[in-house]
Structure formats: C-alpha cells, structure tokens
Fold each of these.
Amino acid sequence: MSRSAPTRLPRDPIPSGGNTPPLAAIERLRALRSGLPPTAARIADLILSRQAEVVHMSVTEVAEHAGASEGSVIALCRQVGARGFQHLKIELARALTQPVQAIHEDLEPGDAPATVMRKVFAAGIQALQDTLAVLDPAALARAASLLCAAKRIEVYGIGSAAPVAEDAHMRMLRIGLDVRLAVDSHVQAVSAALAGPKVATLTISHSGSSVETITATRLAREAGARTVIITNLGRNPLQAHADVVLSTAARETRFRTEAMTSRIAQLAVVDALISSMALARGGDAILALRRSSEVLSLKRY
C-alpha cells in the first residue's frame, strides 16, 4: 500500500475514546482510497458512495455488497481510526443526523410534548407490527421445543440487550426451568465454554455484531450446546452460530444502533417464546407459576 497518503490526512490524531470528530474517519478513508488494495478499495467505495445506507447495514451486509470478508471491513475501519464497524457507523451517522435526532430519529426541533409522545409511541407500535410480520411461527415452535428439551438453559445479553435477557431469565425461572443468566462477557465466555449437549442457550442481540455475544454463542455451540438467537432481520455474524433464529424488525436509527424500539420488539418475541414454552410444559409450568406467585406474594404488602 502506498505510504504517500498519510500526508493528506487530518493533522489532529483521532482520539481513542468516543470523541472522534464526526468527519475524521470519513476524511481518512477518502485520503487513503487511492492507495488501498482492491478488496479494501471496494469496501471504501461502498462506504463513501452509500453512506446513508451503510449506517443501516450490518458488517455482514457490507462485506457481501463489497465482495469482501467481515474481517476486511473491520480492518479497514480500524485503519481509518475507528474502533470497529459499529464505531464507523456512528461517525457516519453524526455527519448525517441532526443533533436532536440523537435523542430520537423522528424528532424535530420545537416538537411539543404531545408530538414527542405520538412519535415515540408510533415507533414502538411500528416495531411490533413489523416484527409480527417477519417472525416465523415454525422457528418459534422449534426454539420453544429446543429450549424445553434442554437440561439447562443459559441466557446471554450485553449492553442494552441485558435487561431483555434478565426478563427472559426471570420468566423462564417462573415456569420451572433450570436457567442461568450471564450479562458479563467473562462469565458468558466461561459458561459457554463449559456448556455441553444437554445445554441450550438463548442469545439476545439487536445488531448481531457484538463481539461478546458472538463469542459466547460460538463457544457454546462448539461445546455441543443448541443455540437460539433473537436478532434483527438481515444478515449478521451472530447468525452463523445459531440453530434457530428468531427475527425482530425494529428499525435501527442512524445515530443509536440499539434504540428503545429494538427492546420493545425483543420483549415481545421473548413473551411469545416463553408463552409457547409454558404451554408445551403444561401442568408443570402451571404448578411452577403457582408456586412462584405464592413466594412473590410475600414480597408485597
């Protein structure tokens, strides 16, 4: 690769934290473009020519469109100063999005509280309707059967998916299942590596690109566990390690890669999944629910 390109780069280095100037990574990409090898050049051309589309793509989709590997996409992102593909997408979004839209994609300056309420609620309703349209009933049935048949279930979620994982964990406990929760990346890795054929895992990740949950799911499958994932519609790296995929269809905003709408959709899928599992378990689930309700009643006045 040519070494003359760096003279065209911005003089200020990109900080290692989250305060990278919005256009810094893009300007570096433009500056390096002429000296890139063919594969990296195709990726750069795709990103530079389709910025508004790229902020809604997964790393897998960018790789497929550019005829490259996911590793090549990530390597190019790091070469231009981003920590990874998700970081580059945030930088792209900052350049394309008005500041107020960092709060919510559809909000405009001067929106009244009533308008804010309407837009936020409408986004949640749309996510539920879209998810209902894409969620495969057969996949839901397979996931419920697979999880019910396991001797032990492990639930994984990182970041904004962690509260959804916690909800799934509690709901499964209440219907009498042996289930463990791991929302720490180190615990996930150890737990997954020690899983076996009698274990099933449920991984929740909107983007399907979180290194921690991809690693945990891969390790669990390599150890012989069966794997179910809840992730947004579209190709992503997590799907390569899944036995069953349950899809949501929450729109990923330009600035926030995991908005509230994604969690609303995930919670609805979790609700449908565990309801199916409870029905499959029949009397055992009813008895467990009755016992857990009695215990929880002691926590209330």
Amino acid sequence: MPAPCGLAAKAAISQPAPAAPRGSQPPRRRDGPEELHRMVGKRGTMMPPGRILLLVLVLLPPGPAAPSSSQPNATRFVCTEPTLRTFPAGLPRTTLSISVEFTALASLPPTALVPVPLLQELHLSSNRLATLPEALLRPVPALRVLDLTNNLLLDLPTDIFTGAPHLQHLVLRGNRLRALRPAWFQHLPLLLWLDLGANALAEVPPEAFHPLRSLRSLDLSHNLLAALPPGALAGLGALEQLDLEGNRLLTLPPAAFAPAPALRLLFLQDNELRELPLRIFLPLRHLRVLDLARNRLRALELPPRGPGPALELDISGNPWHCGCALRALLRSAAPLLSAAADTRCASPAHRRGQEVAALSGAGDTGCEHRGDGQHPPDP
C-alpha cells in the first residue's frame, strides 16, 4: 500500500468538467448554473476551479518532514496520514499546493508557510485545528484557495486574512464559529466563494460582507440564524448563490435581497418562515432556483418573470392556504414546480388535506378573474 504522504514533481492545473444536464424536476440540492456548478462537488466539499489534480509521483514515508532534496521542482504536497501531528517541514520553495487532510494536526506554528512563498492552495480539512496564528498567511500573498472544513475553530484572529489579498475561495464549513468578525473580510476584494455553513453563528452583523464586491456564492446554511439584519447582504452586487438552509429564520426584512439583484439560486428550506414580505423577491429578476421547502408558509408571492429559463420552485412541506392566489401561483410556476406528495392544504376547511400539487389542475370555480385583473376573495 502506498504511503499517504508525498510530493509531485509535475503538476497540471485541471480544467473543470462541464456541468451535468439539468432535469425537469429540481433535485433537493442544486449546485447552480455551469459557472457555479463546476466549483462545487458533493455537499460539504468544494472543488474550486484551478484545484491542482495529479498523481503523486514520489512517495515519502509518513511523518512531519518532507525532504526537499528528493524533488527540487515539486509543486504539490499531499498527506492524509492519520497519525500526523505536526505540519510538514522542509517543503520545496516551488510548492504551489499543500493538502494535509484527515490527520491529527491540532496546531500550526506562525512560520509554517514561510518556506513556501509561492503557495496558491492550502487544504487543511478534517484535522483538529482549534486556533490559527494571526501571521500564518502573511508569507503566502499569492494564496487563492484556503479550505479549513471540519476542524474545531471557535474563532479566528482579526487580521488573519490581511496577508492574503488574492484569496478567491474560503471554506470554513463544519467548525464551531459563534460570531462573524467584519474585519475578516476587509482585505478580500477578489473572494468569489465563501462557505460558513455548519457553524454556530447566531447573527450576521450589518454590512459584514460589504467589502466582498466580487463574491458570487455565500453559504450560511445550518447555523443558528433567527433573523437577518436589513443590511446583511450590502455590497454583494455580484452574488449569484445564497444558501440559508437549516437555520431558524422566522421572517426576512422587506429589502433583504435588494443589494443582491444578480441572485440566481436562493435556498431557504428548513427554516421557520411563517410569512414573507410583499415584493421581497421583486429585485431578483435573474432568479432561477427558489427552495422554500419545510417552512411554515401559508401564502407566497412569486418573483417577477424575466427572459430565460422558468423558475424552479420547491414549496414542499408548508401549511398552504389553498385559495385562488395559490392556485394561480401553481399554474404560473408549472412545470418546474416541486411539491412533495405529502404537501397538503391546511386551509380553507373544504380543501384541508388535499394535495397541493393537484391544485394546478383544479377547476376555477369561485376564482374567476375580475375586470381589474384581481382574484376575488379566496373561497
């Protein structure tokens, strides 16, 4: 069996594969249009564009050191040795990518990256890191990808990312972060992908993400958010994907999405939303996927229809009021509507228990349009 640590001499920057064709029914988890789909693999993992993929050409014994003399032109170091407790030393100056994952690594010295000033990618997922030194990234100003998924991080130093102005992909998923520090994002104007999912965040400070003017994907899923401040998305004019799944949201500010008119994918499933403000989706003329499954919604106003593909909408698992307005919504959303078979009407009384998905084919008795274009009161 080959050793789990090694250097590779000849690396190639991979080109991402094209996105898989989209079906007529949206899956539970959508990865987005091609330009976003190519950046994400399975849920909880990330495969950003430009990740270095290659075979390990030189296998080294597992341990803390990787002698540079054996491969003076090496560009990637990979180690998944479960017993590794110290960050590898002696890496070649030419190293562009380091992957130390699924090990027992619990700490990093401030000078860990000094020997590799050309580093572009650092993958440290599934270790035991509880803290990071503030100066860790200063020796690697060209860093583009930092993956810290599934560690034990409770907090990060205020200036941890100051020395990495070219960072494009930052993954902090699956840690124990309880608070967001706006200072983290002050010097990341090129960041495209930010994953803060599966932490313990209870709030988003207003305008915390304001400096991230290039950000295209923001994942805040599976945290403890009960509300969003009105300025939570301020500055995110380029944002295309927003994931708020699995929080505790009761409602949203009326202008919550106004700062992010480029949104294409919006995930709000598995919250506690009881109602949404009128016209909340009005700014989202490019929206293509909206997931509202398993909330407590009784009514819904659709986003405006624009040119291009129809909206993919999931309304499963809500206690809908199955009146005229909902029937009109269902007809306009079909055929890309997803409503699980167990999604049933909660009201009015004569429709209680009926499947919501069947309403789009129901007759219009009592729901004829008035001359002013409005529906009569729901029967």
